[in-house]
Design goal:
Oligomer: single chain
Strand order of the largest sheet: 2-1-3-4-5
CATH superfamily of the largest domain: NAD(P)-binding Rossmann-like Domain
Radius of gyration: 19 Å
Number of domains: 2
Structural class: alpha/beta
Helix content: 25-40%
CATH class of the largest domain: Alpha Beta
Number of helices: 10
Order of helices and strands: EHEHEHEHHEHEHEHHEEEH
């Protein structure tokens, strides 16, 4: 997907399950691993109070074929028009077009669910835009765990947050930090620590890999005080994260091993976390 992510197509019937009482009109920016999974869930009836009213994609033809596989007739539109007939816009696109998706959404006083959490750090004025216009930026749990507990601890005093990430080599290939620092991980035979630093630095150096670290930092003590290690592990088959939080209310020690999707940089649970969040928006009972 590129900055020109946009397409035009004749109006079509929105993608919705055959239920009544729909309340959430959802637009999706990007029909990759996550966007397609969410569209499939809506079309299957798994989210009976959600309808897809618009989709934006770089490759309109491929997007249409993907949606047709699910029986989803949502119109494909431009980024500029994506939010117009939606209550919620799901951003699951490259970070380079983050602002083009989220700014018009929150300016219009609507909700934006964002997966490119790292991109928010360089567009943090959007939080003020959302505040002034009654919009909201929502970061789902994604491939992480315990953000509710971290957020609760942050109401008191958090002393430190550290995160250690281990990923299969193919999930880190091409990361800007590795390229810029000439770190070659293609022939590794044992785990190698390729990065130590803050969540803010990781967001810049690993934009496709460490959105989870930014989400953790925003739930806790911020991107500059959240410490991170990244390991390339040739023996790993899952994306693994361990988080340790020291606070005045609890010591949190949490680990998660995510099964990768067809995109090695994205765990299967990431799309499921978005589906869970959409379900909670209209649920008569909400936990967490």
């Amino acid at each position: 997907m590129s900055d020109s992510l946009a397409g035009q197509a004749p109006p079509a019937v929105p993608c919705m399950p055959k239920h009544v009482g729909l309340r959430t009109r959802l637009a999706i920016a990007g029909i990759g691993t996550i966007g397609a999974a969410v569209a499939r869930a809506v079309a299957s009836g798994a989210l009976p109070e959600t309808e897809i009213t618009a989709v934006a994609a770089r490759d309109v033809g491929k997007c249409r074929r993907t949606l047709d596989q699910f029986g989803c007739d949502a119109p494909i539109t431009s980024l500029q028009d994506l939010h117009r007939n939606a209550d919620v816009v799901l951003e699951c696109a490259p970070a380079t077009i983050f602002d083009q998706i989220v700014r018009p959404t929150v300016t219009a006083g609507k909700k934006a669910i964002v997966l490119s959490a790292g991109a928010l750090l360089s567009h943090f004025d959007l939080v003020d835009v959302a505040r002034k216009n009654g919009g909201q930026i929502i970061i789902p749990t994604g491939a992480l765990l315990g953000l509710d507990a971290v957020g609760a601890a942050a109401q008191g005093k958090i002393y430190s947050v550290t995160m250690t990430t281990r990923k299969p080599v193919k999930g880190l290939l091409g990361a800007p930090y590795l390229v810029e620092n000439k770190i070659d991980i293609t022939g590794l035979t044992e785990p190698l620590c390729v990065f130590r630093g803050s969540a803010r630095e990781a967001a810049t150096g690993f934009p496709a890999n460490l959105n989870v670290a930014v989400a953790l930092s925003l739930a806790g003590i911020g991107p500059d005080l959240t410490s991170l290690e990244i390991w390339a592990d040739p023996g790993a088959v899952r994306n693994m994260h361990r988080i340790v939080v020291e606070s005045d209310s609890a010591r949190l020690d949490m680990s998660i091993e995510n099964i990768p999707s067809e995109n090695p940089r994205t765990g299967r649970i990431t799309a499921l976390s978005v589906i869970s969040m959409l379900r909670k928006m209209n649920a008569p009972l909400r936990v967490g």
